Amino acid sequence: MRIAFLGLGVMGYPMAGHLLRKGGHEVTVYNRSAAKAAQWVAEYGGRSAPTPREAAQGCDLVAMCVGNDDDVRSVVYGDSGCLAGLGSGALLVDHTTASARLARELHAKCAGKGVGFIDAPVSGGQAGAVNGQLGIMCGGNAQDFDRAKPVLDIYAKGCVLIGEPGAGQLTKMVNQVVIAGLLQGLSEGLAFGKRAGLDLEKVISVISKGAAQSWQMENRWKAMNDMKFDGFGFAVEWMRKDLGICLDEAHNNGARLPVTAIIDQFYSQVEGRGGKRWDTCSLMHLLGTD
Fold first, then answer.
1. From its phi and psi, is residue 216 left (phi > 0), alpha (psi between -120 and 50) or beta?
2. CATH code of the domain in which 142 resides
């Protein structure tokens, strides 16, 4: 297939690479920073294009992974946007964590051109992207999903159609709400254990085998214990963006997210301590265990 990938951040860069190396597809990339696109081409091959439209021209599928709703619109719409370059029968897949409202909007705009659309946010972090082990939660119609899935499976550990357009983004909101709660609980538990004078390595070795087990516990407890949060993982500022989307959606649908709202405030405090780019496990920093 001829595929374009728009957005070469910490997630998109390796995802696009898998499409070429593992999938054997013909891949064209676009990135706001042309230097990053040139770096990708030097590492993987393929080609880069100066605009989303030129990247998308002649493609069977365009995937994108950018920052937020406004970023998505900037690469999709307008004379230089990818939608202007896509022909009838092509597919557009959005891996950005964005609003469900935007997903429904994009689905309608794409349908008007005969282009299929799937909202397909991912979970698994940078390591999942690098290792091709992402969880991909999708919204759209079954026919479009069936066409997209063989491509998405190249970098997925699991890829599931949840429901109608927007359902993928709503599922990602569930994911982020759950992760935020887990990290706050883990932070408080570890801080309590440290205050109690326990050997946390032994504590984790036991409780990670029982009902308290989680990916966050097994992969983040040591960084939390060492109070080292920089240079890896999912940044606090990204989580705050995602939680903002969750809280907005909850306001619209009537869901109550009291703990999520509090944790979002905690992350604001972490940002105030210079932690915008710290991993989300840095909630531990607020508990004063040193």
1. alpha
2. 3.40.50.720
Distance CA 196, CA 214 (A): 22
Beta-carbon neighbour count of residue 192 at 10 Å?
Answer: 12
Q: Position 261: which residue type?
A: A
**CATH number of residue 248's parent domain:** 1.10.1040.10
274 and 178 both lie in a single domain: yes
Residues 132 and 200 reside in one and the same domain: no
CA-based radius of gyration for the chain: 20
Instruction: Give dist(CA 1, CA 133) in Å, integer.
Output: 22
Q: Which domain holds residue 103?
A: 2-164
Q: And the tokens for 10?
A: 């910490």
The reply to whether 141 and 212 lie within a common domain is: no
CA distances from 216 to 98, 183, 185, 234 (A): 23, 7, 11, 12
Can you list the residues of the chain whose pLDDT is less than 70? 289-290
- Torsion sign (Cα): 110, 111, 112, 115: positive
pLDDT tens sequence across 150-173: 999 999 999 999 999 999 999 999
Q: Is residue 107 within 8 Å of 167, Cβ to Cβ? A: no
pTM reported for the whole predicted model: 0.95
Neighbours of 264 (CB within 10 A): 18
As annotated, the active-site residues are: 172
Three-state SS at 134: strand
Residue 26, burial from CB neighbour count under 10 angstroms (0-12, 13-18, 19+): middle
Q: Could you tell me the sign of the dihedral formed by the alpha carbons of 278, 172, 170, 189, in that order? A: negative
Model confidence pLDDT, tens digit, residues 179-222: 999 999 999 999 999 999 999 999 999 999 999 999 999 999 99
Per-residue model confidence (pLDDT) at position 290: 56
Q: What amino acid is encoded at 181 in this protein?
A: G
Orientation angle between helical segments 167-195 and 200-207, nearest 10 degrees: 140
